[in-house]
Each structure stands twice: as C-alpha cells, then as structure tokens.
Design a protein that fits this description.
CATH topology of the largest domain: Transferase(Phosphotransferase), domain 1
Number of domains: 2
Helix content: 25-40%
Strand order of the largest sheet: 1-2-3-4-6-5
Number of helices: 7
Shape: globular
Strand content: 15-25%
Distance between the termini: 45 Å
Order of helices and strands: EEEEHEEEHEEEEHHHHH
Structural class: alpha+beta
CATH class of the largest domain: Mainly Alpha
Radius of gyration: 20 Å
C-alpha cells in the first residue's frame, strides 16, 4: 500500500499526518484546502483477493454511517472510490470521517466509577439511536470508544455494523466481547450490542474478560450448546469496590440467552444514569472533586 507523506495532496485533501493503521488500511489527518476543515481519511487498498472484504466493509460503513447523526457517533462525510476499469469493482477507497481526538477506553481505562458510568451511558445512548434507525454496531469494544480530555465520547468503527436481524455469512466480532449469537451465526439484534457493551463494561470494571463462545485463538467453544460456556465470575468477586447495582446490570447484559438481557439499550442507558446518580449522592463529593476509584 502506498503511504502518503505530510504535504501531499490526495483526492483534493492535503495530508497532515498519519494517525493510525488497520488490517488493510491507513488513517490520516487531512485538511480540505477550500474550507480549512480537518478530517480523518481512511485509505483502504485491495492488494489481494482476500482484501475484498475490507473494501466491502468500508463501503458498508459509509452506507450506514452517512445516515446517522448523533453527538456520540463519529460522523462519516464522504466516500471516494477508485476502480481499475469502468465495470470493475472498487480496488481502493478513501473514506472521509470526523477526526476524533482522544484515547480509546482500551488504552486508557476509566479510573473512577463516575467517569466510567458517564462514558458508558453516552455509548448506550448512541447505540440506542442506531437501533432506532434499524442498525446494530455489532463490534462494541473498548477500542471502539474514544474519549477526549473534556470527556466527549465518540463511538467509532462501523465496519461490522448491519441491519437489525442480519444473519452474517461468516463469524464477525472480537473474541473477548463477541455475543453467542454472533459466533453461531444467528440473527444480529439490538441485544447483541447489549452483550458486547456488557462485556466491555465487565473488562473496564474488572480488567478481566467475559468467557465467550469464541476463544482467544478464534476457536469455537461449546459448539452450538451455549450451556457449556464457562460462567463469568460476578464483578464483585473480582473487584470489591464495584457496587452491587453495577454488578447486577453488567451481569444481566452478558447473559447467554438474549431474552434474559435488558429489553433495550435505552433501558441500559437509563439504568446507568440512575446508578451514577445514586453513587454520586452516596459518595457526597469532596471539594477536591475526587471520586471512588474503579481499581482495587
């Protein structure tokens, strides 16, 4: 893949810096010379037949993302495609997106309960908005939640997003956060995001992973019988600082059976808001602004 250098002009945008890399992509900070607006540009190139899926994911990410407008979802502005021939499929795409400043939750776990609850409530609200529009994120994990110094939250990476009810042709998801129905290629629903977010919160509060149906080596665990899955320990068994009301919510989100999870992401957001209010009242905030810590 060609790597662009600062100062180069690509598809009408001036490259400022490289800001990240993916499996078959490079992301740059770029500027529109006409408006002076700074964007992120995701460059995806097909270098072999197996890279078709990365091109397709970028195209589908644009199709979904361009329809969504929410303060906690990264805005996707434009998709530029290049084709080797008039009737050919694209072999190179440039996706213009909102440039998100900050750190992922994976790189910087929230230190305080108030901070964590605030972040996850905003994520839940963004996911609920997606669900009202008919889509599921389907890859919610700490690396896809960005938070800046002002605690602005952005959910990123819609590359595995799909319409509610989709049955995917292959297993897609991140092993440590994947829901059983994703592993067994059952319909993907709003409750799939509930599980993914629950597994994300479990890790954030405990620094441990929920046992999922897809092992660390991408091996299938338990086959189609989810009752064989190892049950996760309760959060309060791992981290005694976690209040029981948080433990109860997270454990309900990671239930193997979707019907046993909260009814909607809106319910999750409301419960996070209620829990945060109770904890703040209980803690009687000190003048220094310190909060109960997540860590032991």
């Amino acid at each position: 893949m060609e790597i662009f250098k600062p100062g180069e002009t690509v598809e009408g945008y001036r490259v400022m810096a490289e800001v990240g890399r993916g499996a078959a992509s490079v992301i740059y900070a770029v500027q529109d010379p006409k408006t002076k607006q700074v964007w992120a540009m995701k460059h995806v190139v097909k270098e072999s037949e197996k890279d078709d899926r990365f091109i397709e994911q970028a195209e589908y990410e644009y199709q979904i993302g361009s329809k969504l407008v929410h303060p906690a979802l990264r805005k996707i502005e434009r998709l530029i495609t290049r084709k080797p021939g008039f009737l050919s499929k694209p072999n190179e795409v440039f996706m213009i997106m909102e440039l998100v400043d900050g750190q992922s939750v994976e790189r910087q776990r929230p230190k305080y309960l108030d901070e964590a609850l605030d972040i996850f409530e905003k994520v839940a609200q963004a996911l609920h908005y997606m669900h009202t529009k008919g889509y599921v994120h389907a890859d919610m994990k700490p690396n896809n939640i960005m938070v800046d110094a002002q605690r602005t939250v952005k959910v990123i990476d819609l590359g595995q997003s799909c319409a509610i009810g989709t049955v995917k042709k292959r297993i897609q998801g991140t092993p440590d956060y994947i829901a059983p129905e994703q592993v067994h290629r059952r319909p993907i629903t709003a409750k799939t995001d509930v599980y993914n977010l629950g597994a994300t919160m479990y890790w954030a509060f405990t620094n441990h992973f929920v046992p999922t149906a897809l092992g660390r080596g991408d091996s299938l665990v338990g086959h189609i019988d989810d009752t064989l899955l190892e049950k996760p320990k309760r959060l309060i068994e791992i981290n005694k600082r976690i209040p029981e009301i948080i433990d109860n919510l997270v454990m309900s989100c990671v239930e193997v059976e979707p019907a046993r999870r909260p009814d909607s992401m809106s319910v999750v957001a409301d419960r996070l808001n209620l829990i945060r209010g109770k904890i703040l009242a209980e803690m009687e905030l000190r003048k220094s602004g310190s909060f109960r810590r997540v860590e032991d």
